[in-house]
Amino acid sequence: MPEIIYSNPIDVVSYKIFRLFDVFRGNSKLNTIDDSFQIVLLLVSLYKDGVINENSFNNYFDVYELKSLILNSTLNSQNKDAYIQIVDTFNNSLTILFSEPLNYFSFLFFQLEKRMLLENFPRIFDELLYKLSEAHGKHTSEFIQPYEITRLIMNLAKVKDNDTIYNPFAGLASFATFLNNTNHYYGQEINHKTLALGKLRLLAYKLENFEYKQEDSIEDWNSFSEFDLIVSNPPFNLKYNNYNYRQINISIEIVIIERSLQQLNQRGKLICVFPESFLFKKNPKDLAFKKHLIENNLIDTIISLPNGIFKHTAIGTCIVIINKKKVYNTIRFIDASSFVYSKSNNRDKLLDDLNLLEQIENNNNKIVRLIDKEVIIENDYNLLVSRYFINDNFEGVRLNHIGSFIRGARSENDAIGKFVKIRNLKDNIVNFNLDIEELEEREIPSLGTRKIQQSCLLVALKWRTLKPTYFEYNGEPIYISNDILAFKVDKKIININYLINELHADYVLNQIDGLRLSSIIPTLRKEDFFQIKIKLPSLEEQKKLYFSNADKFLKSIVKESEQVFHEKKINIEDENSFLRHQIAGSLKNIRGAFKFVQKIIDEQIKLQIPDLDNLKADVRLQTTFSNYMNIIERDLESMNKAVNKAGDKIDLLDLNVESFDLLDFIKDYSNSLKIRANNLFDVELDLDESAIIEYGISAINISGDKDIIRRMLDNIVENAENHAFSNSIDSGNKIKIELIYDFEDFSVQIDISNTGKPLPKNISFESLVRKGSTSGENTGNGIGLWYVNEVMKIHKGKFGFTDETGSEGIKGEYVTSMELTFPINTANNENV
Questions:
Q1: Which of these, 792, 770, 767, lies nearest to 712 by C-alpha position?
Q2: What is the DSSP letter of 112?
Q3: 6, 37, 126, 229: most buried, per Cβ within 10 A?
């Protein structure tokens, strides 16, 4: 038989391996295994190494026999030990697998071509590993670092043969895969399952002499050797109060850098991925430590990374390089924030590392700056990369030359007054006066608030724009929090209208972007606000420029209003279908509840009251309890049919828009969905709350009509129920609701994924949302996803979908994802 030659052997083998998971999904017992991916990779690796073959999976095969095959194989003793440790780690899952008939599994498994495995196994292994990470994101304990990050760091490290490398917090040993067997590698990982999968990865790469141990990188820091390179991507949320370190509340960054400086040889380097907050923290410990690093010329390079390239966090990140042999008095700052691209599904952001590396090596001054340490000292040891790329090379003045900070008076205890929040400020160059009459009169917090009793400009120190708003004092004071700055303007120098216009200008916003701290809640320090530079022509010229820009602004508003009115003109016939969608979800819940009531009556109550069906409300009446139940069932069915026959258009103009916390809303919806599921599907919820808690965000507020949004979500779930799921209990059906934050665009994406049947092949977005379009076996009236698209448009959002089984998708248990993107309100805290 002629040998088949594949042009893409990695994709072919990966596809065949992923087919094995159909065995797990289709078996209620195997479907409970959490480590299915890991044990399949283990078995494939053992097959590749000749330990198991077509005759291995007999009816009596078990874990003991698997270990015997390993010990009696031709593998060297080190690899045998590694395999035995991995088998022990996944013993329970392997036991469950081997307890089931393996005929179908064996049939699929041994279709794998061993030759292709032997020739391509490192690439096949990593292809599957990254697909696991994409499918499970931060939920898998085996978080894998993006390949592009690893490649960039190891290219910057320039490791030589025979170099020694220490990798604390090693995870899946990603850095080790860029080394060779002449290098001496010591890695530590605390999670035993992550360690087992990492060991399997090292076996795939034939890196047999590396030390990779289950150890706590804090308690068991390697202190018995010197290294040429220490490289790490430590967990960002690690708390040190749990460790017996010599200082409490010390940051992980300080611990790693301090200990690394002790363990590096004289030419050694430390390269770490840190949260961006390390660069600008001002607490005494962090500031003193950065001062020590800067004044002793230990920091070589700082690279700011694009947001969103790590799936497990929305926190801004950077790469810090410490170099013990550095002698020059500058630090290299690299702005890599724009070196990112997205896959075609616009969900996964990837670092463009090869292009970035080329620009770094060419010293492209658009992204690379060498900054003298004296300049950094003048900036109070602030290492935020964007600060050193601000373009203020134009004629103008700093804001501290045209006005001054108003501290205000402390608020009195139990004071009642007008309290200004960021949401009350204006973001408009024409309507910029504070509406004091619209402010709520309330009890004023005694801490963190100030009383303002003079005319001034108010600006927001949090979020993306300053929202400059003028307060005209007429005898009634206002109260502001520390998130708002009061600025007294010298009107002899600058026209207030012109100043507000300039604070909205792109050249000022670019400066603000460079000065703001954090990518989660962008925050501007008071001292940095006064360093903003603006152009300052004569007062007469200021007035002319302002009126010209105000005229353009008003014309754009008129044009935008006309466009919105045009888009929202919807036919009056839409009302019937709107009514259908308004009551369809509630009706479904009532019908489901009624079935359970019937079940309780038949199986429990009738045992106690055998004559229940014949009971009457009054002996003089003819209607029995059974008659009433039949009437309810009949009328529920009639209502359901009537709703389903309603019109095919929706009136979306009558909205009850309010600002609400999406986190609470989705939690409530998820809970109601679990009740509604009737055991036909499981509901998984992921709010990624760790990302927002890290920066003290108390809520993710969006504006919209909660009832309509809830009905829109019902539509998506109904589509899954009607077209994707099988209608049997314990079928393995799942719905996953996940929130994904983009704090650059101030948006939040709700992903609703299901494990049922995939969408029809090659279906387009246009056909999916076309009114009246139907597809699949259980075709409906073609309105569901048209409705979803219309709801998202009127909420200034975006609707999309991903076929996870297609080329753009993520291979895993979920086959279809509906994606709803809403703009986030910049009003997420009490004082905002």
A1: 792
A2: S
A3: 229
Q: Name the H helices within 323-425.
A: 353-361, 373-378
Q: What is the pLDDT of residues 404-455, one digit of tens each?
A: 999 999 888 888 999 999 989 999 999 999 999 889 889 998 888 999 999 9
pLDDT digits (tens, 9 = 90+) for 98-124: 998 888 889 999 999 999 999 999 999
For the entire predicted model, the pTM comes to 0.74
**Which residues fall within 8 angstroms of residue 619, CB to CB, at 6 or more apart?**
none
Are 174 and 202 in contact by the 8 Å Cβ rule? The answer is no
From CA 363, how far away is CA 135, in angstroms rounded?
37
Measured at the CA of 389, the angle between CA 387 and CA 392, to 5 degrees, comes to: 95
DSSP, residue by residue, 770-806: STT---SSS---S-HHHHHHHHHHHTT-EEEEEETTS
Element (DSSP H or E) covering residue 371: strand 368-372
Burial 29-39 (b: 16+ CB within 10 A, else e): ebbebebbbbb
d(CA 824, CA 797): 10
CA distance 556 to 558: 5
Residues β-bridged to residue 462 = 523
Burial of 441 (0-12, 13-18, 19+ CB in 10 A): exposed
The tokens of 158 are what?
């320039």
Q: What are phi and psi of 42, to 5 degrees?
A: -60, -50
In the structure encoding, which two tokens stand for residue 578, read together? 């709107």
Determine the Cα–Cα distance for residues 270 and 783; give it in Å rounded to an integer: 57
Going by pLDDT thresholds of 50, 70 and 90, the confidence category of residue 649 is very low
Alpha helices in 205-265, H assignment, sequence order? 252-263
Sign, CA torsion 580/586/588/590 = negative
What SS3 state is found at 95? helix
The answer for 450, left when phi > 0, alpha when psi is -120 to 50, beta otherwise, is beta
